Every structure is written in structure tokens, then in C-alpha cells.
Amino acid sequence: MSYTSEFSAIMTRFKSEWEGRLPVKWPNVYFEPAESGPDGWIYISVLNGESLQVSMGGSTNYFRHSGVIMAQIFGDAGSGVNTLYGHADAFSNIFRNKIFSGVHTGSPSVQNVGMDEATGKYQINVSVPFYRDEKF
Hints:
By secondary structure, the chain is an alpha+beta fold.
């Protein structure tokens, strides 16, 4: 499984499960938050980490690629932190301990980043560790 396939699998799962919730700011796609409608948006990214050889001696060897699926959830000042935690729960449920298209995910962690006084946005992050194996 390549980095391209990994990214596609993660984004496809997110898109199919997230439908109807907050607007999504997709990686490398222009986004401007709506002036009306749902308060806030979510930004999803895939942060690749270390790659390790996990087998040897055969005609092909396996390499484990690890990383983190990151959601940054933003809400307007005064929209309530419980609403943002609800979105964090929904994101966590999409990826908690799942196996799909060769991607194995772990247990999500939620970080309350807080208010950005310059933008007036409140932020909560969710990080989900993952790995995939590839043979060469």
C-alpha cells in the first residue's frame, strides 16, 4: 500500500462517515468558512511518521508505516464547548480501533486547544494513531 492509497483510504472513510456534520476544510483545497450555517468546521490531515522494517529473511520484507490522523475542530466563540466535544466524539467513532483498506487505527486522543483570541475561534484536536504494512 502506497502513501497515495493510504491517504485515499483514510479520506474516503472520513467522507462517507462524516456526511451532514460540520463543513470540511480538505487538505490543499481552498476553503472559506461560511458566514451563516453551522458554527465552525473541521480540518483533517494525515501526518506520516516513522517507517520500520518488521520482517526479514524472506523473498519479500514487510515495512510498517505509522502516522496520525489529525482532526482540528473549530467553533465560533460562544458556540459551546460541548458542541465541539460532540464533533470530536463523532470523529473518534469513525476511526477508533478500525481496520479498513489495510489501515489499522488505534485509540483516539482529544486535546482541548482553547480559544484563539486573534480569530475568535475555539479549537479541539483529535489524534488517532494508525499504521499500515507494505511489502517490498
